[in-house]
Design goal:
The complex is a heterodimer of chains A (504) and B (206). Chain A is 64% helix and 0% strand. Chain A has 17 helices and no strands. Chain B is of the alpha+beta class. Chain B is 41% helix and 16% strand. In chain B, the strands form two sheets. Chain B has a four-stranded antiparallel β-sheet. In chain B, strands 3-4 form a two-stranded antiparallel ribbon. In chain B, helix 4 packs antiparallel against helix 5. The chains are: A mainly alpha (504), B alpha+beta (206).
Chain lengths: 504, 206
Amino acid sequence: MSASSSSMQGHTVPASGMDNTIESPGQRAPLVLGTGDFHTVTNQVCRVTEHPTVPMAWYVAFGVSLMLLGALGVAVNYLIFTGVGVWGLNNPVMWAFDITNFVFWVGIGHAGTLISAILFLFRQKWRTGINRFAEAMTIFAVICAGIFPGIHVGRVWFAYWLFPIPNQMEMWPQFRSPLLWDVFAVSTYFTVSLVFWYIGLIPDLATLRDRAKGTIQQFAYGLFALGWRGSARHWHRYEVAYLLLAALATPLVLSVHSVVSFDFAVSQLPGWHTTIFPPYFVAGAIFSGFAMVVTLAVPARELFGLKDLITMRHLDNMNKVILVTGCMVGYAYSMEFFIAWYSGAPYEQFAFINRAFGQYWWAYWIMVSCNVITPQLFWFKKVRTSIPAMFVLSLFVNVGMWFERYVIIVSSLANDFLPTSWDEFIPTWVDIATMLGAFGLFGVLFLLFCRYLPMIAIAEVKSVMPEANPHWEGYAKGHGSHGHHGGAPVGSQPAFQDPRPGQP
Amino acid sequence: MTTFATPSSTTAPASTETSVAQTWGLVARFANPAELMHAAEAVRKAGYRYWDCHSPFPIHGIDHAMGISRTILPVVVFGAGAAGCTLGFLLQSFTNSFDFSIWALVWVTGYPFLISGKPLLSFPAFVPVMFELTILLSALTTAFGMLAFNQLPELYHPLLKHPGFGRATDDRFFISIESRDPQFLRSKTGEFLKSLGASSVEVVES
């Protein structure tokens, strides 16, 4: 459809699949390719949910995710009925896979909020192509994260002690503990992310409602669309609310991983007790989250035919963010070593030398290779715009960031002040099943989201098209009358020119 | 559904002028955001009060063209944020610093936790939770406040069952004028909308 419409309109519309990664001063690169027509955008996004069948790859991925989810169920139930002894924990390694997974998943979530809130405040229009599923990723990642603190307490039925609920013991949570700050930070983060996501979804649910053929779809989408009818008076308050939510989510997202890092930084353990942790954790969270967005966006745009909406420019921009945050993480790694030396504290110095050359040297060097060395390839535009290269590199970052948390947690605990208490952590099958199972839970939720909800923010994508601007020059010249041109505004807007010499 | 095919056909029988009770209003379709905005300016200048624009995405500047006054939502949200911050401090200082009882649905008693000799009222340690509750109450108030001011959810609305209006969430641009507007006259308002360049003007049954 996009190919025919672009040929019909000559060169006035950015061609489908064109290279929009070129920087051309004085011209905005197009963010929606292949069409200048709002209806085509609606069709492209809605056909994923409206099509009676989905690609076979979806079923395969869903089946694998369901199996992993089953493994999670088995592992968690075995843990609850038997006790935390089924994990490979020992004294002194009392946190290992559980908290590694928790920090990993909370970190993944951060990219979604960064894209939806911080890039919104900075008026980065390219965020509209990716914000919806990045926000969905945030919510599902925080759900996965929330499992681990819940089950690691051992006696799960006492998990309600975390909340300030009046009880017969007249006991309260201890609010001076960072672990309790974490409860409030993560639950607030989840609630606010969910609200932000849902508010963004309302206009698109109305679009699905108005297009729905079946009664069930009409009822379900209609119920959650809340009767939205595109009213300008509603849009006014909606935009103010959206801006407020972005402004509230921005400090929130920076605070969440800061609070998570306090779990470590506020303790006295060498390797944990460092002031660099809050910014270092936030940079790492954004780094890992963007890698996960790339990991998910690459197959999603291929599978569901969304290449004109999630363009190469979007991927290129995300890879740049990965490069920048990867360098920040690398800087934090080296600064930790510098401070350990500069502090003159022998325990601190030992903790870091032990990290790189002690019993967990392999985990440390996996972390450095995946987080600092391989992302440097993104300096090259050929790598940033190569689908296979970015997919592999984003997987490396996911692996590297999991190992970062593993290194911080396990290597610091295993070799603490007293050599007689040193030990080694060896994961059991329950540890591994729980870790893989969380990916299954994430996969199931994400695949269901792709199938039944608009993966791309339809209304927001339309609003960044040049045709959405009432002062667009095509309208001044009398173009864009839907009645005469089959719904497509045929403007005389100059096409995005390729500035490279020798190119047509 | 009655369609104003041409302006001359609006000189219909006099009974249509009296059957205002069954008519929710008129809906006029415009080709693109630019024409919608020009028409919106004209409708505002003509003095209509109960009218609205409908578009699949927010159009920059249309609130000015329509004369929509800025919402008071940010003020409400600020109040909610201040309440959240205060609530966070009161919650923590009550539960961790003092041992008196208050009535909060049941009698609850505070507990002065003495942790490594730190002051019972240790304000710096209370800041993270105060911050989180500030954000939480503000964000929930933003979302529910926006819906409340917009009078949503409103699952039934005459426009929603009007044929063709569904494209307002896809690629079409409409202006609706309600029959309860003091200036509303079915024929006159219809002709007025036609004169603004509407490609169709239709009656919406209530």
